[in-house]
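Bumping with the actual sequence this time:
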Amino acid sequence: MAILAHHVEIQLFEVLHIAPETTLQHICFFAVTLPILAILGYGAWSLKRDLTAFLKSRRDTSSDVPAQA
Protein backbone atom coordinates (compact mmCIF):
# COMPACT_ATOMS: atom_id res chain seq x y z
CA MET A 1 0.00 0.00 0.00
CA ALA A 2 2.85 2.36 0.80
CA ILE A 3 4.39 1.73 -2.63
CA LEU A 4 1.07 2.57 -4.28
CA ALA A 5 0.80 5.70 -2.15
CA HIS A 6 4.28 6.71 -3.26
CA HIS A 7 3.24 6.24 -6.90
CA VAL A 8 0.14 8.40 -6.32
CA GLU A 9 2.37 10.95 -4.62
CA ILE A 10 4.67 11.13 -7.65
CA GLN A 11 1.70 11.50 -10.03
CA LEU A 12 0.07 14.24 -7.94
CA PHE A 13 3.33 16.13 -7.58
CA GLU A 14 3.71 16.16 -11.35
CA VAL A 15 0.16 17.44 -11.84
CA LEU A 16 0.36 20.02 -9.06
CA HIS A 17 3.95 21.00 -9.91
CA ILE A 18 4.98 20.52 -6.28
CA ALA A 19 8.47 19.33 -5.54
CA PRO A 20 8.87 18.08 -1.97
CA GLU A 21 12.39 18.56 -0.81
CA THR A 22 12.38 17.49 2.81
CA THR A 23 11.45 14.31 4.59
CA LEU A 24 8.76 16.20 6.48
CA GLN A 25 7.06 17.19 3.22
CA HIS A 26 7.03 13.56 2.10
CA ILE A 27 5.65 12.41 5.45
CA CYS A 28 2.89 15.03 5.30
CA PHE A 29 1.88 13.91 1.83
CA PHE A 30 1.89 10.25 2.89
CA ALA A 31 -0.26 11.22 5.89
CA VAL A 32 -2.87 12.54 3.46
CA THR A 33 -2.49 9.90 0.74
CA LEU A 34 -2.62 6.72 2.84
CA PRO A 35 -6.02 7.42 4.48
CA ILE A 36 -7.48 8.28 1.07
CA LEU A 37 -6.27 4.98 -0.36
CA ALA A 38 -7.46 3.12 2.74
CA ILE A 39 -10.96 4.58 2.34
CA LEU A 40 -10.87 3.69 -1.36
CA GLY A 41 -9.93 0.10 -0.50
CA TYR A 42 -12.64 -0.13 2.13
CA GLY A 43 -15.20 1.17 -0.35
CA ALA A 44 -14.18 -1.44 -2.92
CA TRP A 45 -14.38 -4.19 -0.31
CA SER A 46 -17.83 -2.98 0.85
CA LEU A 47 -19.10 -2.88 -2.73
CA LYS A 48 -17.91 -6.43 -3.35
CA ARG A 49 -19.44 -7.63 -0.06
CA ASP A 50 -22.82 -6.00 -0.75
CA LEU A 51 -22.92 -7.11 -4.38
CA THR A 52 -22.12 -10.68 -3.37
CA ALA A 53 -24.87 -10.64 -0.73
CA PHE A 54 -27.36 -9.15 -3.20
CA LEU A 55 -26.61 -11.73 -5.88
CA LYS A 56 -26.82 -14.54 -3.33
CA SER A 57 -30.19 -13.31 -2.09
CA ARG A 58 -31.52 -13.13 -5.67
CA ARG A 59 -30.30 -16.65 -6.36
CA ASP A 60 -31.89 -17.97 -3.14
CA THR A 61 -35.26 -16.32 -3.79
CA SER A 62 -35.40 -17.33 -7.45
CA SER A 63 -35.13 -21.01 -6.54
CA ASP A 64 -38.14 -20.71 -4.17
CA VAL A 65 -40.50 -19.70 -6.98
CA PRO A 66 -42.33 -22.73 -8.39
CA ALA A 67 -42.09 -23.29 -12.11
CA GLN A 68 -45.20 -22.46 -14.07
CA ALA A 69 -46.55 -24.99 -16.55
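The C-alpha coordinates above came from a reply further down the thread. The chain has a mean pLDDT of 79.
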